[in-house]
Amino acid sequence: xxxxxxxxxxxxxxxxxxxxxxxxxxxxxxxxxxxxxxxxxxxxxxxxxxxxxxxxxxxxxxxxxxxxxxxxxxxxxxxxxxxxxxxxxxxxxxxxxxxxxxxxxxxxxxxxxxxxxxxxxxxxxxxxxxxxxxxxxxxxxxxxxxxxxxxxxxxxxxxxxxxxxxxxxxxxxxxxxxxxxxxxxxxxxxxxxxxxxxxxxxxxxxxxxxxxxxxxxxxxxxxxxxxxxxxxxxxxxxxxxxxxxxxxxxxxxxxxxxxxxxxxxxxxxxxxxxxxxxxxxxxxxxxxxx
Amino acid sequence: xxxxxxxxxxxxxxxxxxxxxxxxxxxxxxxxxxxxxxxxxxxxxxxxxxxxxxxxxxxxxxxxxxxxxxxxxxxxxxxxxxxxxxxxxxxxxxxxxxxxxxxxxxxxxxxxxxxxxxxxxxxxxxxxxxxxxxxxxxxxxxxxxxxxxxxxxxxxxxxxxxxxxxxxxxxxxxxxxxxxxxxxxxxxxxxxxxxxxxxxxxxxxxxxxxxxxxxxxxxxxxxxxxxxxxxxxxxxxxxxxxxxxxxxxxxxxxxxxxxxxxxxxxxxxxxxxxxxxxxxxxxxxxxxxxxxxxxxxxxxxxxxxxxxxxxxxxxxxxxxxxxxxxxxxxxxxxxxxxxxxxxxxxxxxxxxxxxxxxxxxxxxxxxxxxxxxxxxxxxxxxxxxxxxxxxxxxxxxxxxxxxxxxxxxxxxx
Lengths: 290, 413
Description:
The structure holds two protein chains of two kinds. Chain A is an alpha/beta fold. Chain A is 14% helix and 24% strand. Chain B is α+β, with helices and mostly antiparallel strands. Chain B has a seven-stranded antiparallel β-sheet with strand order 8-3-10-1-16-15-17, covered by helices on one side. In chain B, strand 13 and strand 14 form a beta hairpin.
């Protein structure tokens, strides 16, 4: 029988079947907030944490606790997607080994430690990093070294878009990013200081660099092993031959990068480098001056 | 949600606590929904880590995978969404009715259901209909009536309307969405279905008992609504025929795209920008017969400066493409995964303003917002790569896997 009253017929019947919300939580817990901490095994100054299924917040609390207890090496096993590893940690002589793919913003605001990733890294590594070293054995994603203020990032493979965006330098603070592979568009966008070196090692059908290199760049320098076409550059930069001082600096940084990643530096340095630098330190100086 | 922001277990209702509007009422909400803006410290505690998350997996050889795979992958990106939308699309999930158009319906109430059934019975042959199986899961509430209909179109109706079966279905979907109050078509393809709603993706997937389905392509989405309300119909994927879209980003060109699509009879009714992407793919791939590669170049076209650098043939092609499909250009930041009868396509905007990672293991292609979401279900892929901006990642089913595609039908007809 069909009720005759429109208002009765318009009563929603969906929720009435089951009440406002179910009782049982979803079974799958990967990536879910949780207090379950990873199993810690200590071996002298080294501590291992089994990070499988551990929520990023809990994992980072565990790392900080171990650092506070005087551990010099924290090895994180079975990492997958945990964000902010090493973020904001201020410590010298601390090494964090990441076995697996870490989540976004690895080593953000980090001040001193060494982070070594044995796999690929995701987006935003070394975001606003202050001091320390980040080593990535695989590829790294977009926005590596966003607003980076100091320290070094050595990526063995390729990197994504907008690497070195807003990098800056002041006084003693001098950030460095060295990339073994290739980079995509907007390399060094709005770069204000520091150094980046792009090596383009290995065989690949990919171009060395994308477009819009150094768009808005007004400080710092980019060294590129190989050639860059004019149409790939932003309006604020040009390619010049490196000076003898530049060459000495390239040799110094490439040698250190090759030591860390096991490349032969003589071979890497045997090819010519180009230097990408801004025309002026104040590209928009007259923009609002009447 | 209850007025005090507490659920019936006396716990803080996280969806009222974590409003995307920072404690302000969502557009269209009633004044009784208004909760006081939290104090600064409480707000900091409730800080939302934002950004939609998406994934897609396709076995090109047609091997059928449990929906739990998509569920686990999306679950690992829990923090990208905020519980205001989750959804999945599965292909090859209805082997009992592979050639029937399956309408997954959301009804606000019985009247909407009655009206829709009247409409469907009048215009289709209903082979089978049933509630979409679901179960109680914590966090899922106020679900609409969820029903699915396996439909055929009689030859007489097709002859009478002089439409292709696909166009007939598109007209019907537009009719139901626009004219029947409180009824929305979640999906309308052959041998596929969309499972979506308000909640975190792992809750939605569990609610719909996704682990009980097996399909050769799955896409998944966790929503962080920014410009439009979080409601059941507004969750991703957005589907029309066997095209489904999950999307992370914003379509800034929505107005232009929407007006362009209106000329071809597509009416946007879901109150969100993503649906234009679905309709554009239907227009370009099915109705205009473009290849996937060219369709993607129309939606995320090369910049003029790059077209100027091309060889003559390419320059002419892309100039023509931009001239003809200017209003179909998608502007703004986006990464989308298109599921379709023939396989799966992932595409990001032209300057890569949203994340996208890809991997391959044997015949299976994986894409996701984060590489870790791929590693969650495929720990050691043979190949991982970062797709280029505006370049599609394409997984194509081998011939003969899915006979219920529009292309296969048109070839026979």
